[in-house]
Every structure is written in structure tokens, then in C-alpha cells.
Amino acid sequence: MLTLEWESEGLQTVGIVVIICASLKLLHLLGLIDFSEDSVEDELEMATVRHRPEALELLEAQSKFTKKELQILYRGFKNECPSGVVNEDTFKEIYSQFFPQGDSTTYAHFLFNAFDTDHNGAVSFEDFIKGLSILLRGTVQEKLNWAFNLYDINKDGYITKEEMLDIMKAIYDMMGKCTYPVLKEDAPRQHVETFFQKMDKNKDGVVTIDEFIESCQKDENIMRSMQLFENVI
């Protein structure tokens, strides 16, 4: 049974950890496989899939992965996604396997939108690598910017209570049945209020990127969570 300290003040800490932890399911499915360096390079050059990835050298420059790591990840990505892209239904299927005792549908939707940076309804290998590079190898500032973008559902540059509540409910639905003690039904709303008391410095009802980053950087739990998965591959 998965155990999390849901009743602590910092549910937003759990949210940030869940972002990274859930992303590791993709890494587990797409990265932990054998590969032949030469054959992977050949496939990258001669790929006949619908979406052709950028050259490894370019992705290496744009991410914090080595060429060999990119080769491993590409082989797994192509094996699971022969078309060269991942759609939202695939995301939902992956996270339903990772959280079988909960309903991860809504959270997978939000996470998919965060990876789908050009909002074309598909996550390419490039999208996947750029997002994963931030989550696993990025600076604290980069990770917090990525997390803010996830919480800012309508992408207007602010996090509202309604947006944060939607994210908290999605996390509750995904993880709630696996927690001990079991969360009360109004727990997500209570934690949203705590979140805003802590982060909404000027009390205008919204949290800006600056308020979000400043508050997170002062939270020791969040700072520790930023370092949990830095060397997983």
C-alpha cells in the first residue's frame, strides 16, 4: 500500500513529487531495455514511422541527457509508440497501470497537457525528452517552472483556487484509495486554502510564478523532493 503524509501542511509538496514520480512510469516503460548502439543510430536515420525524431545531436544539445541515454530512451519509445507520438489515451492507460487502485484519468489529462507543449494533441519523442530532462536533470528553477505550468491549467500566468482544487482532486482521485489514514472528502479543498495562505503573498486570490517559486524555495520538503530522482538513469 502506498503511504503518503497527506495530512501534513504541504500537500503541494506531494503534488510536485507526484509529477516526478508519475513521470518515472514513462521512464520505466520506455527506458529500461537493452539496446544496440549501432542499430539505434541506424533506426534514427532510416525511421519510417509517421513522426521522425530530431537528430540525436540536436536533442543532446537541447536536453541534459547523453547520446547513449537518448538512444536507450528512443528504442523504448519507438517500441511502445511505433507511430512516433503518444496520444492522451496512451497517457491515461500508462497511469492507470501505475495507480490501479485509484482513478488517474484526470491527472493524466493534466500531465499530458504539460508535456504537449505545442498543444497539438500528441507528445512526440522530442516533447517527452525535453519534459523528462527538466523533471530529472533540470535546475530547481526549471522544475518549479514546469510544475507551475502544470497547475496553471488555462495558461494565463496565474494559479487560481479553482485550478489548484482541480489538480488536488485529481491527485486525490489517483492516490486517495492508497493512502493511510484515508483522506476526508473535503481534504483537497482544505489543502488548497492552506496552499493559498502560504503562497498568495499579496492576497489577491491568485498565485503568480514569482510567488510560487519563492514559496517553494523556502520549503525544505519541496527542495528535498526536487533532488529525489536526479540520477535515475
From TrEMBL:
GO terms for molecular function: calcium ion binding; potassium channel activity; potassium channel regulator activity. It holds the Pfam family EF-hand_8. GO terms for biological process: regulation of potassium ion transmembrane transport. It is found in: Cell membrane; Cytoplasm; Peroxisome. One of its GO terms (cellular component) is peroxisome. It is a peripheral membrane protein. Residues 103-138, 139-174, 187-222 form the EF-hand domain. Keywords: Calcium, Cell membrane, Cytoplasm, Ion channel, Ion transport, Membrane, Metal-binding, Peroxisome, Phosphoprotein, Potassium, Potassium channel, Potassium transport, Repeat, Transport, Voltage-gated channel. It comes from the Eukaryota. Belongs to the recoverin family. PANTHER family: CALCIUM BINDING PROTEINS (PTHR23055), KV CHANNEL-INTERACTING PROTEIN 4 (PTHR23055:SF30). This is Kv channel-interacting protein 4. It comes from Tursiops truncatus. The lineage of its organism: Eukaryota, Metazoa, Chordata, Craniata, Vertebrata.
